[in-house]
Design brief:
Blueprint lengths: L4 E5 L4 H13 L4 E4 L7 H6 L8 E4 L2 E4 L1 H11 L10 H27 L2 H22 L12 H5 L3 H12 L10 H10 L3 H4 L5 H20 L3
Parallel strand pairs: 1-2
Antiparallel strand pairs: 1-3, 3-4
Helix pairs in contact: 1-3, 4-5, 4-7, 5-8, 7-10
């Protein structure tokens, strides 16, 4: 595959970093184009006119949006170090849990992060119920797919770094070692893998970003009639 590979993304996004991790696992060279999410570029609007969001993978002249779709494209295009299992049932389950993790765990944590008071408690409890399923899925295993890092590990790879920042800025605790011992251990080990570590943004950059985001979101809520 000699065609040029580009990633349009933001270092602030856990959706974008999973694409970088996949390309690095496959040994694929790529150009990273940083996008200013407050002032979207003509390139982003050209390659993802539907959602106008990052990440976008551009392979030759073919743009692929949406991080989960991109991961599957990468896995099918570059065969080394497969991300998804060979067994059809296991592949289906990996896709199911990936979608679940994004829709319930990630967005659940986000809702808890921005909420206040009683609403925050409700949102946290809902998110914790979702994380309990991930705890069961990783129990007794090194990675979600077994002995090798795979698709689901990359999808939930935001947990060790991004979630801890959300916890700090949002004044909450979700990934408790006593409540989720297996998930906590996976997170501690995952973040130390050199390939993973080299792609994550500095913690202080994320902290500043989420402080600003939280202030903005809450100011919008306060100004609602």
């Amino acid at each position: 595959m000699g065609e040029e590979v580009k990633v349009i993304g933001s270092i602030l996004s856990g959706f974008c970093v999973r694409v970088e991790w996949a390309l690095k696992l496959k040994g694929v060279e790529y150009e990273y184009i940083k996008e200013d999410l407050r002032n979207k570029s003509p390139m982003l609007l050209k390659y993802n006119p539907v959602h106008k969001k990052v990440p976008v993978l551009v392979h030759g002249d073919k743009p692929i949006p949406e991080s989960l779709v991109i991961l599957e494209y990468i896995d099918e295009t570059w065969k080394d170090n497969p991300l998804l299992p060979e067994d059809p049932y296991e592949r289906a389950m990996a896709r199911f849990w990936a979608k679940y993790a994004d829709e319930k765990c990630l967005f659940g944590a986000w809702e808890a992060f921005k909420a206040e008071g009683e609403e925050k408690e409700k949102a946290m409890e809902s998110a914790l119920e979702s994380f309990a399923f991930l705890e069961k899925a990783i129990k007794g295993k090194k990675f979600f797919g077994g002995e090798k890092m795979g698709f689901l590990d990359l999808v939930v790879g935001w947990i060790p770094h991004w979630l801890s920042v959300l916890e700090e800025v949002g004044d909450m605790k979700m990934l408790d070692a006593e409540r989720f011992p297996s998930l906590h251990e996976w997170a501690e080990n995952f973040i130390q893998i050199p390939l993973i570590k080299e792609c994550i943004p500095p913690r202080d950059v994320l902290v500043n970003h989420f402080h600003a985001t939280l202030s903005y979101v809450r100011s919008l809520s306060a100004n609602k009639p």
